Amino acid sequence: MALNYERIKEAAQGYEAQMTKFLRDIVRSPGESSGEKAHADRIAQEMRVLDFDKVEIDPMGNVLGYMGHGTTQIAFDGHIDTVGIGNRANWKFDPYDGFESATEIGGRGTSDQLGGVVSAVYGARIMKDLGLLSDKYTVLVTGTVQEEDCDGLCWQYIIQEDKVRPAFVVSTEPTDGGIYRGQRGRMEIRVEAQGVSCHGSAPERGDNAIYKMADILRDIRALNENPADDPEIQGLSKMLHKEHNPEYEEANFLGRGTITCSEIFFTSPSRCAVADSCAVSLDRRMTAGETWEGCLEEIRALPHVKKYGKDIKVSMYEYARPSYTGLTYPIECYFPTWVIPKDHKVTRSIETAYQNLFGEKRIGSPETIASREGRPLIDKWTFSTNGVTIMGRNGIPVIGFGPGAEAQAHAPNERNWKQDLVTCAAVYATLPSIYVAD
Known about the structure:
It contains 13 helices and 20 strands. The chain has helices at about 5-15, 15-25, 35-50, 110-130, 155-160, 210-225, 250-255, 290-300, 305-310, 345-360, 365-370, 385-390, 420-435; strands at about 55, 65, 70-80, 100, 105, 135-145, 170, 180, 180-185, 185-195, 260-265, 275-285, 310-315, 320, 330, 335, 340, 380, 400, 415. The relative contact order is 0.20.
């Protein structure tokens, strides 16, 4: 069946007002990680109103809405939790009441990433409206939980426990009007130093754990700042700067690995005593080819970690926080790097969908178009997404295309743009037919 691209664009434009209302309705309820119930219920309600063929909320609290009954399952994913609002004084408007102008919708979660869920829900409805559904595919729209706390945990549950395994997944995280095909991975590392307390008036009698950690932190800072391609200096990701490495191109596309200290903790009997323990959290961003084992070994090999020996412990965090339904699904805080090839069928299909609808021009808000100046249509995320589990852990192809801007994520005065919602709904409605026809 030949696709009528003008009709698809007209249908998406015709739903602008309904998408705007839907997004504003969701935003009005706070929905931080493990508190998404109101978001889930509102999304499931909209799916039922729009005549999805099946709507369910799984035991973890993820919303799963199905449209069609074809053989190939194609999923559109968006997480429905948000971060908090931070310092309320930094907001020029109520982050939950939000605002609406002729072109914008404001409020916490509008870009990151409730807008993507809204566009996916209506993209599926457009497929039904225009008779695009066929026996070749079924569409699954997911509204997933706890992503801000633990990227991909929701999809580990969906794949392993719900037994859902799509042919590929479109991540609807904000992409500034571009198509994203990868991201660096990350892991959360804990380093602990043990010491011996004593009275602060005679510190030589004890063993100060904070001083040990100070030495280690200097090594960590140098690890991040030293050139990765200098064989004489300890730095991150040396192996990925060798031309013979098969993952060299992907590493260059994603960027080098990084590390930073994100938290510090200590114990001491009092402010008049030597600290008897100190611990830090490390945010380690991983590029193509890096492994969690290698990243832990990097820390264990640092000069002062080796110097202090048995007094130092290096480990990976585990996440085990209950979801809003009360279900706990423990997982290591390891979020693998993923990248889909630029010539993969999924990448080619969404690029074709975009170009058949809009040609070579950038479509979206002036802000998202401006943010892409000098950047290719096919690009990558700076931050992490559920793709870490979907593709990183389970090998299911992921491609990214979503309304809004990366820079709006976690920022005060967060907003999205009505045109972005429309553009994404049109691309989502088009993509499955192109993919199954190839």
